[in-house]
Design a protein that fits this description.
single chain, alpha/beta, Rossmann fold, elongated
Amino acid sequence: MRRLLKVMLVMIVMIVGLQGTALAATWDYTALGDSLGTGFGALKGYVPRYETHIEADTRNTVNLNNLSRNGWTSSDLLYALRNDAGFRRAVRRAEVVTYDVGGNDLRDARERYKQGTCGGADNQDCLRATESKFESNWTAITAEILGLRSPATP
């Protein structure tokens, strides 16, 4: 009788263990952006921190594909999303996508403003032009990402 109970207990543990692994999922997380995404200058950037939080919150394994690039502008990211098959595939397959970009867009305009060469009566023409272009790119980046995503993606 004890032997039968031990065998049954082992079988129950094995079944529970198998169910746990069957329920566990693997998620792909694609990060897009500039130096904030790469974690440049940080001990640990937000991307690996977010990966850890996803795993803790969902109990899923996360495969990180960080496609962020130091120095990128919104135009660089938009171009990659429209023309780079690797970027498009990564976004299409990911359960989680984050993106950040824009600091480098504003950097040149800021310098021109500080030097007094931004243009216009108030020396702010380059700031307005940069903001307008960034807003247009951000909207297009969002549309590209949403267009690549499956309707069933959470």
